[in-house]
C-alpha cells in the first residue's frame, strides 16, 4: 500500500518537482568518488587521468587521435568502424546517407558532405566480395541507383551551403544523369549557377525544373531572381558595349588628329606609369576641332631633376610654361632662367635637336624630326653654359 509523506517545514517551495535534477559535472562526480567511504582502484587517479581514459571510450571521445593507445589501436573504435561496413552495399550506403541527413538537420554541412561522399564511395566500388550478398540482386540494384541519386542530390545541398558552387553543379549533373526529373537537382544547380553569375545557364536549368513541377514555389521564386539578375546584367553589358564603342571612336578621332598634324608617336617595351595622364583631344574627345593636349616631362639632366606637366596644350609655347616654372626652388646658383637655358628634344634617329622657346608644342612636334614615345613628350632644359658639355656626354653614351 502506497503512502504519502509530508514534506518538511523547511522545504523550499521554489523547487519544481516535475523537472528532473540537472546532471552533475565531471568535477562533481570525481569529488564525490574520491570522498566516498569505500575506495576502489581508480581512487588514486587524478581528475585529468580519468577524463583522459574516458576520452578513449566512443561515447565520450572528441578526437580519434586521442582515442588510440601507444600502438595506434582502439578495439572499441575498430569494432564500430567494422559495423559501418557490415551489410549489403545498399544497406551500408543507406547508413551513411542517414548519418549525413542527421548532420544536415544540425546544419553541419562539412560533416554531412563527408558521410554522403562515403556512401557514394561504397556504391561506386566495383568489388562485390567484401559486402554481404543481397537476397534479391534486382531489388539491390534498384536500391543502389535510387541511393546514388539521393546521395548526389544531398551532397549538392551541402556544397551549395558551403559555397562550393562548381561542385554543386557537378553533383546535380550526376543526379540528373540518373533521374532527369529530379526537381531538387534542378533547383540546386540553378542556385549555384546564379551564384556564379551564369544567368543564362541558370535560367535554362531552372526553366527545365519548372516544366517538371509547374507548381514548385521555390523554383518560381528562384526564377524571378534569375530573371532580375539577367536584366541587370543585360543592362550592364549594354553600357559596357556603349563605353567600348565610345572609346574606339575617341581613339580613331585622336589618331586622325595626330596624323593630320604630322605628329609621330610610338610605344616602347617599358612605358612609364603616367596614371590617368594621356594624349587627348579637349574639350570634346570626339570633335576634330578640339585641341590636342600632351603629358610633358621637363628634364634637367645636369641636376637629375624633373617637372611633370599633365596637360600641355598644342598651341602653348615652351616659354609660356617655363615662365611659371623658372626659377627652380632647388637652383641655388640661379642657373635656370628663361634667358640662360636652352631646350632640346630627342630625334627619331636617336640624336638631339634644339628647339626654340618661342615655338608652340605643335611646332616642336610636327617638324618631322621629333616623336612622342609612350604618350609622353620629353623636353630637356639645360643651362646654356653647360649645353656643350651635356651634348658631349650624351654622344659618348650613345657611341656617336
Automatic annotation (TrEMBL):
<dbReference type="GO" id="GO:0051879">
    <property type="term" value="F:Hsp90 protein binding"/>
</dbReference>
<dbReference type="InterPro" id="IPR019734">
    <property type="entry name" value="TPR_rpt"/>
</dbReference>
<keyword id="KW-0677">Repeat</keyword>
<feature type="coiled-coil region">
    <location>
        <begin position="216"/>
        <end position="252"/>
    </location>
</feature>
<dbReference type="GO" id="GO:0030544">
    <property type="term" value="F:Hsp70 protein binding"/>
</dbReference>
<dbReference type="Pfam" id="PF18972">
    <property type="entry name" value="Wheel"/>
</dbReference>
<protein>
    <recommendedName>
        <fullName>Cns1/TTC4 wheel domain-containing protein</fullName>
    </recommendedName>
</protein>
<dbReference type="GO" id="GO:0005829">
    <property type="term" value="C:cytosol"/>
</dbReference>
<dbReference type="GO" id="GO:0043022">
    <property type="term" value="F:ribosome binding"/>
</dbReference>
<keyword id="KW-0802">TPR repeat</keyword>
<dbReference type="GO" id="GO:0042026">
    <property type="term" value="P:protein refolding"/>
</dbReference>
<comment type="similarity">
    <text>Belongs to the TTC4 family.</text>
</comment>
<keyword id="KW-0175">Coiled coil</keyword>
<dbReference type="InterPro" id="IPR011990">
    <property type="entry name" value="TPR-like_helical_dom_sf"/>
</dbReference>
<feature type="domain" description="Cns1/TTC4 wheel">
    <location>
        <begin position="284"/>
        <end position="393"/>
    </location>
</feature>
<feature type="region of interest" description="Disordered">
    <location>
        <begin position="1"/>
        <end position="25"/>
    </location>
</feature>
<dbReference type="GO" id="GO:0005634">
    <property type="term" value="C:nucleus"/>
</dbReference>
<dbReference type="InterPro" id="IPR044059">
    <property type="entry name" value="Csn1/TTC4_wheel"/>
</dbReference>
Amino acid at each position: 500500500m502506497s503512502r504519502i509523506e509530508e514534506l518538511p517545514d523547511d522545504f523550499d517551495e521554489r523547487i519544481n518537482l516535475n523537472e528532473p535534477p540537472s546532471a552533475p559535472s565531471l568535477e562533481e562526480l570525481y569529488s564525490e568518488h574520491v570522498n566516498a567511504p569505500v575506495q576502489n582502484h581508480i581512487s588514486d587517479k587524478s581528475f585529468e587521468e580519468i577524463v583522459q581514459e574516458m576520452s578513449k571510450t566512443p561515447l565520450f571521445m572528441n578526437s580519434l587521435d586521442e582515442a588510440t593507445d601507444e600502438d595506434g589501436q582502439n578495439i572499441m573504435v575498430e569494432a564500430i568502424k567494422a559495423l559501418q561496413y557490415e551489410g549489403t552495399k545498399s544497406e551500408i550506403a543507406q547508413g551513411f546517407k542517414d548519418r549525413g541527413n542527421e548532420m544536415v538537420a544540425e546544419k553541419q554541412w562539412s560533416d554531412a558532405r563527408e558521410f554522403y561522399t562515403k556512401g557514394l564511395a561504397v556504391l561506386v566500388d566495383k568489388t562485390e566480395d567484401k559486402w554481404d550478398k543481397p537476397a534479391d540482386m534486382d531489388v539491390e540494384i534498384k536500391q543502389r541507383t535510387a541511393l546514388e541519386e539521393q546521395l548526389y542530390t544531398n551532397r549538392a545541398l551541402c556544397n551549395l551551403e558551403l559555397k562550393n558552387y562548381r561542385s554543386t553543379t557537378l553533383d546535380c549533373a550526376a543526379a540528373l544523369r540518373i533521374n532527369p526529373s529530379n526537381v531538387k537537382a534542378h533547383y540546386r544547380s540553378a542556385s549555384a549557377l546564379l551564384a556564379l553569375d551564369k544567368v543564362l545557364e541558370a535560367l535554362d536549368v531552372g526553366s527545365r525544373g519548372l516544366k517538371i513541377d509547374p507548381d514548385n514555389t521555390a523554383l518560381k521564386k528562384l526564377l524571378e531572381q534569375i530573371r532580375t539578375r539577367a536584366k541587370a546584367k543585360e543592362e550592364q553589358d549594354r553600357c559596357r558595349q556603349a563605353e567600348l564603342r565610345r572609346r574606339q571612336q575617341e581613339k580613331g578621332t585622336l589618331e586622325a588628329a595626330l596624323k593630320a598634324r604630322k605628329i609621330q608617336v610610338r610605344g616602347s617595351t617599358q612605358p612609364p606609369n603616367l596614371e590617368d595622364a594621356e594624349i587627348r583631344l579637349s574639350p570634346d574627345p570626339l570633335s576634330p576641332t578640339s585641341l590636342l593636349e600632351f603629358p610633358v616631362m621637363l628634364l634637367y639632366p645636369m641636376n637629375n631633376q624633373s617637372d611633370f606637366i599633365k596637360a600641355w596644350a598644342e598651341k602653348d609655347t615652351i616659354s609660356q610654361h617655363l615662365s611659371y616654372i623658372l626659377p627652380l626652388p632647388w637652383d641655388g646658383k640661379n642657373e635656370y632662367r628663361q634667358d640662360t637655358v636652352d631646350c632640346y628634344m630627342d630625334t627619331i634617329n636617336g640624336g638631339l635637336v634644339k628647339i626654340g622657346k618661342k615655338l608652340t608644342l605643335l611646332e616642336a612636334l610636327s617638324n618631322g624630326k621629333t616623336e612622342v614615345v609612350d604618350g609622353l613628350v620629353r623636353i630637356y632644359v639645360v643651362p646654356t653654359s653647360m649645353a656643350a658639355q651635356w651634348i658631349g656626354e650624351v654622344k659618348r653614351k650613345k657611341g656617336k
